[in-house]
Amino acid sequence: MAGLLRKPLGVAGKVHDVTPQSAGWSYVGFALWRLGPGEAAAEATGGQEAILVMIEGRAMVSAGGVEYGRLGERMDVFEKTPPHSLYVPAASHWEAVAETACTLAVCTAPGRGGHAAQRIGPAGISLVQRGQGANTRFIHNIAMENEDYADSLLVTEVYTPQGNWSSWPAHRHDEDDWPNMTYLEETYYFRFNPPQGFGLHRVYTEDGSLDEAMVVKNHDVTLVPRGHHPAGAPYGYEMYYLNVMAGPIRKWRFRNDPDHDWIWRRDQGLA
Known about the structure:
This protein is mainly beta and 271 residues long. 4% of the residues lie in helices and 46% in strands.
């Protein structure tokens, strides 16, 4: 398995390009473009479907020869307003021409051509709370399983307040065992407020065959090929991440680490 922590390749242009081949897995791809006003990004989807997520800034976007107009509204991801996104099916092509400085995420996974290109949000996307206490975080569901936008992709963004944890209690989704668990590869794209901040992301298996604790900084990407994967933000720094998941079934079913499942059960009033 390739290294799980991916640093940006620069500060402009295509600064991340995670492919199934470079990650050593089968489903998830993730790219990040940082564009200046007037600059453009364009790609063919081939056998992959894509969801373009405008992290920050505004761009004029087209897909499959259709103009979808301006994508984006928030100029800082920590405004926490719902993102503007665009679904692009397999065997198509997209282009984005920046009107302002832009950060554009391109989430990809195998596509069957089962859905048409379409805008996703900001209407219908709201910031929802998950967890409680120091486990509180806030979620924008962009394309989870109850939203029929895609063949394979599951995409969400998460805001973790300073001093809190996310993806906690620790859980895994690394077995194709429907309906008990679904096999889902996953990437995390991180941002911090203020930007000089950092967080911690641990990826580990119960048998200890994988146990990697990573210091993550602004614009870093991490890979979760298997195992549990909690992430924490230190006091003073708010943490954002964009999650991309995909696997053979477009469902999110997971299992908590047995050592820490008591926390979930207590919070659910089951213990």
